[in-house]
């Protein structure tokens, strides 16, 4: 029996190419699925305006603890979707809303009204009452949320864990409106 | 007996692997390798099997949901019969596995086993170390308690510092905008499917290489490895001074593996499971997150590096370290194997052990973390306020109320973020103390805005009393001159 090696080898190569093509076609949805958290972040974004409650809850001149429910949640997120922040009521219409996450590596900072400092329990970062860096490893001040006052309620633009490398989290110097 | 034999023959006739298994078992190995130094690899494999079995048992009940994971672990600990023990076995098994893999690696390095022709075995071994550490980290995440929650935040903060791709990496790591349900499920997939799959695959390659290339012979000082002659010499050695792997070298592996598993069981029974710690609720901020034992050194590194060096060190350091480990067999693939003639290698290992040990030990005490409740729970020792004036005692009160104690120790109590102040008056004059308190500096916040002049005066008056007997407090000679108009020589200390 004569075996046509050239033809069969060609068919094998063709078969490999065919499977590679099918694999590539299937890889597109698989990769898009895997990258969905990134594409979601880029297109509609994760942030929206959430209420921290009536402005009266935050006395002028004080810094208070506040929590809100993250705008993007899964039903099975449990308590992890309830996020904390620090609200400093500077004067009548002026606020500062800080993330609890230390600008160093994200541990929760605590406010000490007596000494007017935020202190981090992890690596010893400390911040002044206006959120600026006081000492320790952080390279910058606390992350600030944009805020607005809407019918007597303090609103902040929130929804994403602030991290030191996130430019969006660093460019929040000007308060904006909802 | 005859039945067993015929069943075995039935399978043998179909599988046809009996001969290759038999030849693998009885392949000749150098005699001295039947040593207690050569048992760590097999022990690591045994612990891995234990981890698979206990992991499957835990997966039967564990709920990988952000809302329920912590509760399911509580249930495993309390309500499920021996659930606590299986969790303890898995947790302690993880620690033992990392430890044994590290010991195995040190042994291989000291015995020169990574040299020609076993370069690939070493490289796969390095990958196995990384994958094992990956299991340890993702496992800590699945314990989904406060430490896991804030640990993920730290991971995200590190990932975010990668240039350009940082924010995307954070989203990929967390599976969404925050640490929540999607984060836990992806770490579950990693810990239960992806990384164990890699581990099994790389272990198979690692074992195949050990079988194909032979167990490293006992290193003899002066017996050099040369690419041209090594393989021949090795086969000669196994012929002249060898013995079959089974049973010659195996019984020590079996005993050591048994002892290790027994040790894990005993430790698990005595010390119980790891956590879970506090509930993973981000609004409970009264917490001081700590990593698991094998990542404590990293905690120290992140605290002690100068801020400007941190990002480059975090992003470049691991690449360099892994690159060096990969490069090792190519840089020193030949030559001396015995550690007795490789002093640099010995010093390197000692240096690495001392460095990691010191960093880990520092992390246990974490002197860089403020003691967040020292101001309200650790009083100033009575000796420091006895016989003081009213002003000085008022200063002691300011010291407590303004949380100075959180960072500064007095009489061993309090934080160690800043220097202990038991003898601060010896180091700083009154003016220097005022300046330091008001302006801060040297890694201390400025308290100017939060201390009234009265409070500052009282606080400094108290600090001025802090000097040990026999050591006079620091004085500003020029000030004396300016105030008294006298000459400087009269202010010299006796």
List keywords for this structure.
heterodimer; A: 178 residues; alpha+beta; 4-stranded antiparallel sheet; 11 strands; disordered C terminus; B: 494 residues; mainly alpha; two-stranded antiparallel sheet
Q: Would you mind describing this structure in some detail?
A:
The complex is a heterodimer of chains A (178) and B (494). By secondary structure, chain A is of the alpha+beta class. Helices cover 23% and strands 30% of the residues of chain A. Chain A has a 4-stranded antiparallel β-sheet with strand order 2-3-4-9, with no helix packed on it. In chain A, a hairpin with a 2-residue loop joins strand 3 and strand 4. The longest helix of chain A has 30 residues, at 5-34. The termini of chain A are far apart. Residues 168-178 of chain A have low confidence and may be disordered. With 494 residues, chain B is mainly α. Helix content of chain B is 63%, strand content 1%. Chain B has 22 helices and 2 strands. A two-stranded antiparallel sheet of chain B has the order 1-2. The radius of gyration of chain B is 31 Å and the shape is elongated. The interface between A and B is large, with 60 and 67 residues.
Topology at a glance:
The complex is a heterodimer of chains A (178) and B (494).
Chain A: H1 5-34, H2 36-42, E1 48-54, E2 63-69, E3 82-91, E4 94-99, E5 110-112, E6 117-119, E7 126-128, E8 133-135, E9 144-145, E10 147-150, E11 153-158, H3 167-170
Antiparallel strand pairs in A: 1-11, 2-3, 3-4, 4-9, 5-6, 6-7, 7-8, 10-11
Chain B: H1 2-15, H2 18-26, E1 28-30, H3 40-59, H4 69-78, H5 83-110, H6 119-142, H7 146-160, H8 166-174, H9 181-213, H10 230-240, E2 242-244, H11 245-248, H12 250-271, H13 296-304, H14 307-331, H15 343-365, H16 374-377, H17 390-401, H18 404-407, H19 424-427, H20 430-439, H21 453-464, H22 477-484
Antiparallel strand pairs in B: 1-2
Helix pairs in contact in B: 3-5, 3-12, 4-5, 5-6, 5-12, 6-9, 6-14, 7-8, 13-15, 17-21, 20-21
